[in-house]
Amino acid sequence: MSWKKEVDGIAQRRTLAQEMGGADAVARQHERGRMTIRERVNALADSGTFQEEGPMAGHGELDENGELQQFTPGNYVLGIGQVDGRPCAMGGEDFTQRGGSPTPSGLRKSVYAEEVALRYRLPLIRFLEGGGGSVTGTGGKGTSAPRPMGDPVYAPSRFKSMADVLESAPVVSAAVGAVAGLPAARLAASHFTVMTRHTSQVLVAGPAVVERALGEKMTKEELGGAAIHLRSGLVDNVAEDEAGVMEQIRGFLSYLPRNTSEMPTRSNPDAADFDDPQRREESLLDLVPRERRKIYKMRKVINAVVDRDSFFEMTALYGRSQITGLARMNGWPVGIWANDPRFYGGSMTAHGAQKVRRFIELCDRFHLPMVALVDEPGFMIGSASEKAATIRYGVEAICATVRSRVPWVSVIVRKTYGVAAAAHFGPSGEIYAWPSAEGGALPIEGGVAVAFRREIEAAPDPEARRLELESQFLGRQNPYARAEAFGVHDLIDPRDTRPTLCRWIELARPVLEERVLGTRLAT
Question: Which of 66, 306, 391, 499 shows the smallest number of beta carbons within 10 Å?
Fold first, then answer.
């Protein structure tokens, strides 16, 4: 006796699952300017590579003869597809059903996405659009009470997989619609986050809940739009549309290994556009002004020394005195951290320190050597800085540096003052300096104000005496002193920065590879 009837039932359910919430719901999704989840995974995955997990998960309703009358698919789609030839686990909520709020099979599939990434040690990519639990339960009105995310029985297993995958492989989350509850928690539990500028919001709770609890009447955009979260630090980058989201995901993953047991790969050195490691940029010779109070654009330094067009900046609008991003040196992926003197003179704020700590830990986890371009005047001072507990977060950044296991190279572009400067120099790292470099326990202006306070106050013209003392100490600055005392490994022509860094990465990379291989064999 044949099993054809049952096999036909498999095909029928798989076909119905492709319809998601139906044609009308799909049309409404498109009217909002958003893709469906199936369109998203197919847009990101290399053509024809996406293999779905649980393609017929859902709920079927049968008539009295056992014939399928209706099929409601689970509202989470997941599978494995290749992104630029690299296998990745990917998935997300189907907003055309229940607004993305979980159904029983949808919830199980969302958890299983992390388990798949862990099992095969693959990067995990989430497209997030949906709310968390509902008071009506995971099956809708009239069903049993929901099992909340904080349920002491179920919460550990749900959140353990989220935590474990962060330790194993790159995790990328994209907010591509309204995101709240558990999906918002998943977004936060990521190495890289991106959201669309006009069609997404990220919320702990939506407007109705906020108004009922706090009396604040706000829209989703006012509560958690891109303008909010690019500055809150929750989201790293923004894309103008979903096509831009795909581009940023591909860009981020191109710098990272498949998992923590592998090394990041080099770009093709035989390509026609491969950047010359000996390239010297004349503009660097006069980029830093001689006048100490004048600023310059640190991103010009970055783009002059890394491989052309390779700088991928992250979290640009949060902790703005610190610049973080990924780049390539002679084709090899590296982490870039620099001070931006246009904001607070480049000083380390509480937000900047948190941003830096997270970035150092990302680079350390995925074996990205660190390049620090230093112009650090110290921790941000003042009453607001004290209220923000700046030094607590600053010391956490310093601890992340000294615990770091990847190679470091630091180039002192201008200032290295105070305790905060310690964060910029990794254990056993190489240190170079430009002729514009200066440093000490305090900037000269602050140091003079402290050391000569009484003398300045007693002077007939306190302001003139203060300026005179500052001028005396500034005149003692000697750009060669550190190098002569071997306080730095070399004083270099700024134009030689790129060749110097490219030589360094060729020396540091094999040592890092041996360390990663040794760790892998030991485990």
Answer: 66
